[in-house]
Amino acid sequence: MGLLSILRKLKSAPDQEVRILLLGLDNAGKTTLLKQLASEDISHITPTQGFNIKSVQSQGFKLNVWDIGGQRKIRPYWRNYFENTDVLIYVIDSADRKRFEETGQELAELLDEEKLSGVPVLIFANKQDLLTAAPASEIAEGLNLHTIRDRVWQIQSCSALSGEGVQVRLWRSLAVPAGHL
Amino acid sequence: MSSRKLRMFVQVCLYFYCKCLWRCLKFVVRKLTGQCELQRICYNTKPGAARTMKIEASLKGSKSKRLQTSVSVHPDAIEKTIDDIMELKRINPDINPQLGVSLQACLLQIVGYRNLIAEVEKLRREPYDSENPQHEEMLLKLWKCLKPNSPLKARISKQWCEIGFQGDDPKTDFRGMGLLGLYNLAYFAEWDTEIAQQVLSDSLHPKYSQLSKAEWEKKKFDKAIGYSFAIVGINITDLAYNLLVSGALKTHFYNVAPEAPTLTHFQQTFCYLMHEFHKFWIEEDPLDIMEFNRVREKFHKQILKQLQNPEMALCPHFAASESLINM
Asked: Could you say which residues bind Mg(2+) here (chain A) (predicted)?
């Protein structure tokens, strides 16, 4: 498949390239986050069929961000993108309480994946601009994040819509795993 | 650095030189033929996109403020604008009765296209609101037209996935396309019902006809061999919107709309694009849905290329029988 050859090319380039995988349920805000990271217009977002990819330069890193659609039908394809992932970003719609259980299950399955073992995970508690959004601490507790022992992890509240909490904190979290890239 | 500045300087000089040359040429031709540029365009180019786009370029490039602003007047002021232009260009309407009519038709299209962009943009910016009975009604109509034989059991239901929404409530799927996405899908389902139902059915198992029974049995468990009808509709809405805003659709609208292009014209274009995209998808025979953006990009380029031909019109089959004035 074409995708694999692209991946190999990415890996053969000089270091300081970071492969970031952006996952989460549909309507979590992954594409908005991706566009926000790339400083692009976010007013024309449509639901993702398939995937989007963008390369973003930041602090000497070249971030290759893969945003994969979150629709249930597409989730079986997530595994095709696991290989060589440096950082997993998992996005949660903090206001969609009805699906906290579903999103927790998907995350737990991802953390069990062999190809993602040891990969640092950054969880974005997105949509904090909404009044009904649950705070990051509540989500962390609901998802039992404190039981994660096999990797670096972090949860950040953010609003991909306003851009608040997106840029700065992503870099800080990257600084930790950068050592074993 | 200095060579870049020099190059820029040369380019600027060249620009003014060409502009000056163009003006002189126009002056000479005008003296020779006794006709202004607008007259020459109308007499030498047949009606349709070719003529209207030349008129538009001529008006915008004119040195007269009145002519420049004529492309953005209110539709009601068009007749007065034509009179002004005729007076300004010292054209006698009694000797050239056809010119006013031709110019008016062009201007109606030019102004109409601008207004259509504004109308479409307004719809796009209006988010889907489940408290609004009109929005809800249209959403339910979409279901009824696509699935006449299987009633929706509840407003919030997994059934929505059957027509290609992502979850149990479509409202979160309209996103950046707002009401425009719903308007387009509902129009497609209501006015081009047969094709819409066919496309929906194919989108659920597009490769069925081409596979052997054994292969199909194997594939059936792979739930994502097709694409999601409604989601693709919202993505194709984005494509149609981009074609409109970039001006690429002028070719099409100036060829099919006798006067100002309307929202209906835009929605018919959407129907055409859905049908064409579907055929394109099947021809491309992608491995799976993950290739969607690649296929979409290729389709976009193909449509853009087609629209470069001034004769081009993107007509859905059901509108083809309607009068195409300029074809």
From this structure: 31, 48
